[in-house]
C-alpha cells in the first residue's frame, strides 16, 4: 500500500566534511541505506578513501575537494554532483571548532568558525537546492549541536555558529517547503570520533562536565547519530521539516 | 527476501490503538516485527484491528483514565506476550471552543484524558518497562502522542493546548528520571492529521470543514495535510535502536508549521 520506507535506494547524497568523523560515518550510513554518495571535503585523498569504502559496499561514490566557504567552490561541487547523478540529499556537516574563551578567541578564529558552519551551510544549500526544487524533491540535513540550544564556557564562536545553523534550517524549511524540499537539523551531544577519541581517554576531565550532565550516562558514538540522519533523509520523514532533532541522551531536556 | 525488522522481538502497548494515529502505528510496529497490544475504549474496533494484524497483535479494552484498567492493560500484555518493551501513550481527546465554553466537565475530561490518564498509564507500565530495560537486550522506551499544540498555541484550543504542553513537560521529566534505568521517553507532535478526531478539531478554525482544511493547508510549508503513516514512521524511528541516543525530545511532524 505504498508505505513509505526508511531506504534511500536510487538517491544521490552529498556529504560535506565527509572525509572523517561524523561526515564519514554519515556518508557510510547513507550508502548503507542505498544512496550513492558524493564525498566532499577539503582534502581530496581522504575523500577518495571514504569513496572507496562506499564503492566496496556496492554503491557508487564520487570524491570532490571543496571549500564550503567559497561560493565558486560550492557551485563547482553542486555541478560535479549533478553530473554524477540527480542530488536529492545534502548533509551539511562541515564544521570547525575553536574551544577558546572569550578573551582568547581572535577575530579571525571567530570569523572562520562562523564561516565554515554557517556560511558553508548557506552556500552549499544555495548551490544544491535549485536542482532539488526543480525536481520537487530533496532533503537537506544540517549539523547542529547541543550548543544550538544551551551555552557553554569556551565555546562562544562554535555555539554561535551552530545556533545560526538552526536559523538557516527554519528559514529554508519555510522557503523551500512549497517546492518539496525538506530541511532539518540534527543536534548531537559530544560524539566520540577519531578526532577526539584520544582526548576523551587521556584528558577525561575535559569531558567530565558534559558526561555528568548526560542523563543516559555516556558520550555519543557516531552510530548513535547516523540513524537520525538516515531517518530525516528518508521518505519515512516526508512530513518532517524545519525541525532540529536533538541526539543528546537527554542533555537539553534538563 | 527476508529483512530484519526495526522492532524485531519487541512488545508494545499502544493506547488509542484501534483507530487514527494509534492504528497506523500498530500496523507499522507489527510490520517491523513487534508484537502489539491494542488498548482502546472501542473494543469492537480494537478486536477488528487485532484480527487484521494476526499473530502479531492482541487487544484489550482500556479507558486509560481508570487506574484499574491501565493495570489490567499491562497485565494483559504480559499475559499475552510475556514482557513490555514499548509503551505508546497515544490515546487523547480533542476540544475546540473559546475559553469560556470549557466548563468543569470539559476541563475534567480534556485534562483527565490527555494528561492525568497518560500519567496513570505510565505509572502502571513502569514496573514492566524497568524489568525490560534491565533484562532484555534492546531496552525500553515510552512514546507520547502530544500535538503541535504541545509546543505552540492556537486560539480556541487553549485547554487542549495546555493539556498537550503538559505532556511535553511529562516527557522531559520522565526522560531525566528514567534515563539511569535506560528507558528513553519521547513525544511526537503531529499537526492536525486526517483521522476520526479531525471532525472534532477543525470546527475551531472555520465553520465549514473544507474551508478549515484549506486554511490549515495554507499554514503548512509542505502544502499538504499529514497522513497517519507520517506520525507512525516517527514513532517507529523513536522506538527503534536507531534512536538509542534520543530521549526527552518533542519531535514535530508538521510539514514545517513550527519553523515559520
From TrEMBL, chain A:
Endpoints of the signal sequence: none
GO molecular function list: oxidoreductase activity, acting on the CH-OH group of donors, NAD or NADP as acceptor
Gene3D superfamilies in the record: NAD(P)-binding Rossmann-like Domain (3.40.50.720)
Domain of life: Bacteria
Residue span, Ketoreductase domain: 11-189
SUPFAM superfamilies attached to this UniProt entry: NAD(P)-binding Rossmann-fold domains
Family membership: Belongs to the short-chain dehydrogenases/reductases (SDR) family.
Name used for this protein in its record: 2-deoxy-D-gluconate 3-dehydrogenase
Organism expressing this protein natively: Alsobacter metallidurans
UniProtKB/TrEMBL annotation, chain B:
Record carries keyword NAD: yes
GO molecular function, one term: oxidoreductase activity
UniProt keyword annotations, A-Z: Lipid metabolism, NAD, Oxidoreductase, Steroid metabolism
Signal sequence bounds: none
Domain of life according to the entry: Bacteria
One protein family per Pfam: adh_short_C2
GO biological process: steroid metabolic process
Protein family per UniProt: Belongs to the short-chain dehydrogenases/reductases (SDR) family.
Protein's name according to its UniProt entry: Alcohol dehydrogenase
Source organism (scientific name): Alsobacter metallidurans
Amino acid at each position: 500500500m505504498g508505505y513509505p520506507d526508511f531506504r534511500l535506494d536510487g538517491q544521490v547524497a552529498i556529504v560535506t566534511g565527509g572525509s572523517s568523523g561524523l561526515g564519514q560515518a554519515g556518508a557510510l550510513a547513507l550508502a548503507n541505506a542505498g544512496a550513492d554518495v558524493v564525498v566532499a571535503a577539503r582534502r581530496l585523498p581522504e575523500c577518495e578513501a571514504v569513496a572507496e569504502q562506499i564503492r566496496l559496499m556496492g554503491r557508487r561514490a564520487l570524491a570532490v575537494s571543496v571549500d564550503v566557504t567559497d561560493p565558486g567552490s560550492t557551485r563547482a561541487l553542486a555541478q560535479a554532483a549533478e553530473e554524477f547523478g540527480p542530488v536529492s540529499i545534502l548533509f551539511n556537516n562541515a564544521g570547525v571548532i575553536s574551544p577558546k574563551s572569550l578573551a582568547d578567541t581572535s577575530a579571525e578564529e571567530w570569523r572562520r568558525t562562523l564561516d565554515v558552519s554557517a556560511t558553508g551551510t548557506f552556500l552549499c544549500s544555495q548551490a544544491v537546492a535549485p536542482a532539488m526544487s526543480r525536481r520537487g524533491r530533496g532533503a537537506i540535513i544540517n549539523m547542529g549541536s547541543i550548543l544550538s540550544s544551551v551555552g557553554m564556557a569556551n565555546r562562544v564562536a562554535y555555539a554561535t555558529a551552530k545556533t545560526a545553523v538552526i536559523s538557516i534550517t527554519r528559514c529554508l524549511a519555510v522557503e523551500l517547503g512549497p517546492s518539496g524540499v525538506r530541511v532539518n537539523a540534527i543536534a548531537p551531544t559530544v560524539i566520540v570520533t577519531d578526532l577526539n577519541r584520544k582526548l576523551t581517554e587521556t584528558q577525561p576531565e575535559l569531558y567530565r562536565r558534559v558526561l555528568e550532565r548526560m542523563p543516559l550516562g555516556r558520550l555519543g558514538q557516531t552510530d548513535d547519530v547516523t540513524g537520525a540522519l538516515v531517518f530525516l533523509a528518508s521518505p519515512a520523514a516526508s512530513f518532517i521539516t524545519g525541525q532540529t532533532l536533538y541526539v543528546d541522551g537527554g542533555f537539553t531536556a534538563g | 527476501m527476508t529483512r530484519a525488522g526495526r522492532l524485531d522481538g519487541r512488545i508494545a502497548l499502544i493506547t488509542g490503538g484501534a483507530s487514527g494515529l494509534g492504528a497506523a502505528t500498530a500496523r507499522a510496529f507489527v510490520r517491523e516485527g513487534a508484537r502489539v497490544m491494542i488498548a482502546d475504549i472501542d473494543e469492537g474496533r480494537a478486536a477488528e484491528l487485532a484480527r487484521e494484524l494476526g499473530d502479531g497483535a492482541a487487544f484489550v479494552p482500556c479507558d486509560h483514565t481508570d487506574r484499574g484498567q491501565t493495570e489490567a492493560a499491562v497485565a494483559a500484555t504480559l499475559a499475552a506476550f510475556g514482557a513490555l518493551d514499548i509503551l505508546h501513550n497515544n490515546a487523547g481527546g480533542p476540544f475546540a471552543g473559546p475559553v469560556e465554553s470549557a466548563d468543569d466537565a470539559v476541563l475534567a475530561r480534556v485534562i483527565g484524558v490527555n494528561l492525568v490518564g497518560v500519567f496513570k498509564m505510565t505509572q502502571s507500565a513502569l514496573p514492566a518497562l524497568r524489568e525490560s530495560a534491565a533484562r532484555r537486550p534492546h531496552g525500553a522506551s515510552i512514546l507520547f502522542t502530544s500535538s503541535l499544540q504541545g509546543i505552540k498555541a492556537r486560539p480556541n484550543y487553549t485547554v487542549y493546548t495546555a493539556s498537550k504542553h503538559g505532556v511535553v513537560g511529562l516527557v522531559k521529566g520522565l526522560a531525566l528520571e528514567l534515563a539511569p534505568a535506560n528507558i528513553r521517553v519521547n513525544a511526537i507532535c503531529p499537526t492536525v492529521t486526517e483521522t476520526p478526531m479531525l471532525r472534532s478539531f477543525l470546527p475551531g478554525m472555520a465553520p465549514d470543514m473544507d474551508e478549515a482544511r484549506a486554511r490549515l493547508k495554507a499554514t503548512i510549508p509542505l502544502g499538504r495535510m499529514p497522513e497517519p503513516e507520517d506520525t507512525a514512521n516517527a514513532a517507529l524511528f523513536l522506538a527503534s535502536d536507531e534512536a538509542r541516543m534520543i530521549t526527552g525530545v518533542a519531535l514535530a511532524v508538521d510539514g514545517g508549521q513550527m519553523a515559520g
